[in-house]
Every structure is written in C-alpha cells, then in structure tokens.
Write a structure and sequence with these properties.
It is built from 16 helices and no strands. By secondary structure, it is mostly helical. The protein folds into 2 domains: 3-217, Rhopdopsin 7-helix transmembrane proteins; 241-353, Homeodomain-like (Arc Repressor Mutant, subunit A, Orthogonal Bundle), CATH 1.10.10.60. Helix 1 (3-30) packs antiparallel against helix 2 (37-54), helix 4 runs antiparallel to helix 5 (98-116) and helix 11 (263-270) crosses helix 12 (274-285). This is Helix-turn-helix transcriptional regulator.
C-alpha cells in the first residue's frame, strides 16, 4: 500500500473508531439499566473496534500470524454480533441469551483456529462459510419480519442498514479471505464498505433526529420529551373511523383464530389499504408489530377460557389452538411473558378463586 493510501486508511479507521465511541456513549446515556440493547451493543460495538484495528494492512503484514488469532477471532465472531444487532432492531422481543454467546464463541474459535493451526482447505471453507451463514440468517430476519412491522420508518431503514451490512459481510468474505487478506486498494474498499454501514447507523443515532430514531429502533430507550407549546403541531390523529371498525370486527369475526392471519389478509377483510391499517394499529393502539397485536387478542381469549369453570375439561392445547396459536410452545412462551405464569398455573389460580 502506498504512503498516501496508508494515511487515508489510518485516518478513516481513526474516524470510525471515534464515531463508534460516540454512538456507544450516546446510547449508554439513553438506555435504562437492564435494557435488552445493552448486552448486544456491548458485544457488537467493541467487536467492530477490534475489527477496524486488526484488519489494518500493516497489522496483517507485520504481526505474526499466531498473534493475530484473537483479533481475527473477534472480527469473524462479529458476524454473529451483527445478526444479534439486527434481531434487536427488528424483533422487539429479542433478548441476548447464552445460546447466542455460544454461537459467537464457536464462530470466533474458527477464526482463531485459522491463525493458530497449519493452513488447511477445511479451515478456509469454515472461515468463509461462517460469515455467509450469518448473512443468510440476517436476510431471513429481514424477510420474516417485513410484513408484520408496523413502523414505516423502521421498514425503510432496514432496507438500507441491513442490506448494507449483509453486502459488506459478503464483500469481506470475497476480499479478505480469498488470499488471506485484503492488500492495498482492496483493504481500502473493504474499509469504505464498513464505514458506510457505520456512518448510516451513526447518522440516525447521533444526528438532530437521534431521540426519535432511538425511540423508534430501541423499544426500551427513554421516552421522547413532551413537545413544548412552541413546537410544531402534532401529527394528524390516528384513523378514528378505521379504529372504530377494527375492534368490533376483531371481536365478532375473530379473524385472529386463523394462525396464518397477516396484516395484508386482515386489511383485505376490512376492505382498506394495508398501509392504512398499519398506521392505525401503530399510531392509534401503540403496537410496533402486527403479530403482537394479534397475539393480544389470542391471549385474551385463552385467559378467558382458562378462567372459565365451565371449560375446565378442555385441555390447554385445545384452548391454544382454538385461539389461533399454531402449537403449544409459542403459546406457553407468550402466555408466561404476558402473565408471569404458565397456562396451567394461571388456570389453577383462577379456578381456586371462583
């Protein structure tokens, strides 16, 4: 790499590390203790810093291969960290679990082994395959949650942020692992790809609209301050006419009992455009996800059935399936998250009181 490219590379890396520090500091201020975002960001942001330092061409050229092992391990493991970040941004119920950390450790171990063990085609294949597998999992998250997401801005952002991150992962595999590194201009291209993803996220989280974006993307961020009297007029009121129709329709027709019910399907039944129903449920009822809205109806029906002495002969499975859940597992998890009890515990307590 020429001296000019080396200076540009160093300046870009320093700038991106500073930007990541600012993003971490800003989020640290606004996220309450115990927020689901904290462990995910603690895994991902430092990993990006390590990746920026460890992928420096001079570092790769001058540091012995074995000494690069921890740096490469963290950089490769960051593909799992990015997947966790995407889950955090677009799945309001996501929590970092031990299994996610084990997946990160397994992928990181592949990166370390690549540096510590003699060269072998199988190791190279694993090193290429792990980030691509994580990229595929990220695309699956993107596609799975697209139709149920009720936040218009978040739906638009996921196309840029997630697609850009996945594209960078694929680009990194091609540039960095084809020859074991990304020398010269290729390293700079690799860096620019990563920088574009970081800059996009930082612009949303550090710019003038930062509080709104944080509230939008991170459900546990501090609530926005109340607008002052001199603030701009509030946005238009939610669709009152549609909301007035929606609850009676859900109660009488019980479309939620169909486990395959989608936003598009419900909009068709109501005879309204999909975007109109999405905005009504989000702005009028406060739901961020269509599945959460539908599950609320299902859980309400299940609770009523479990508390009814006349239905105590019905099995929990029968009640769950009748309410629209596809299987007992998701029902049990959703019910306990809502009530703090298993369905059986809830039924026993309710029937004891009646």
């Amino acid at each position: 790499m020429s001296e000019a490219l080396a200076l540009l590379d160093a300046a870009l890396r320093g700038g991106l590390i500073t930007l990541l520090a600012l993003v971490g500091w800003q989020l640290q201020r606004r996220l309450p203790a115990g927020a689901a975002a904290r462990p995910v960001l603690a895994l991902f942001l430092p990993g990006l810093v390590v990746q920026l330092i460890g992928s420096t061409p001079a570092f790769e050229a001058q540091v012995p291969r074995a000494w690069q092992a921890p740096w490469v391990a963290v950089a490769v493991g960051n593909a799992v960290g990015f997947w966790c970040l995407v889950r955090l941004l677009f799945d309001d119920d996501f929590r970092l679990r031990a299994r996610h950390l084990l997946a990160w450790a397994a992928v990181a171990a592949v990166g370390a082994a690549y540096c510590l063990l003699p060269p072998h085609p199988a190791l190279t294949l694993l090193l290429r395959g792990a980030p691509l597998l994580c990229a595929a999992a990220t695309l699956w998250v993107l596609g799975r949650g697209w139709s149920a997401d009720l936040l218009e801005a978040r739906r638009r952002l996921r196309l840029g942020l997630v697609s850009g991150g996945v594209a960078y992962t694929v680009l990194g595999v091609g540039l960095r692992l084809g020859t074991g590194g990304a020398p010269g201009p290729l390293a700079l291209l690799d860096l620019l790809g990563l920088g574009a993803v970081i800059a996009l996220g930082a612009a949303a989280l550090l710019g003038p609209e930062a509080p709104r974006w944080q509230q939008l993307l991170l459900a546990e961020a501090e609530p926005l301050p109340a607008p002052s009297a001199a603030a701009e007029p509030a946005p238009a009121a939610p669709d009152a006419e549609l909301l007035a129709r929606l609850e009676p329709f859900m109660r009488s027709q019980q479309p939620y009992r169909d486990e395959a019910l989608s936003l598009a399907g419900l909009a068709a039944q109501l005879g309204v455009p999909e975007y109109r129903l999405r905005r009504a449920i989000n702005q009028g009822l406060g739901f961020r996800n269509f599945n959460a809205y539908v599950n609320q109806w299902r859980l309400d029906e299940a609770r009523a059935a479990l508390a009814d002495p006349a239905q105590q002969a019905r099995s929990v499975l029968d009640i769950a399936l009748a309410a629209g859940f596809g299987s007992i597992g998701p029902f049990n998890r959703a019910f306990k998250a809502e009530t703090g009890q298993t369905p059986t515990e809830f039924r026993r307590a309710q029937l004891a009181e009646s």
